[in-house]
Amino acid sequence: MRPQPLFSRERRTRLFDGCQAALVWLAVLASVVADREVERLALAAMAAVALAAAFVALCPAAPAPQPRAASTTTREDENHVL
Fold it and tell me: Can you tell me where the transmembrane regions are (predicted)?
């Protein structure tokens, strides 16, 4: 069994917001276009995007990174190039 992917809170928010924007544009496309096949395709895409948004919303959040202790590196270490 594979572990579930973990997304940071910021990444989950951006992805969820992107899904909402895509849903709005697909809804506009579905309501504006006259072709029945394009409308069905837009509605199918809306369902897929809604499932992706639900998956992201239900994924567990990645743990917040732990603050690091004071580093012992010196300025010489940072400027050293091989």
Answer: 44-62
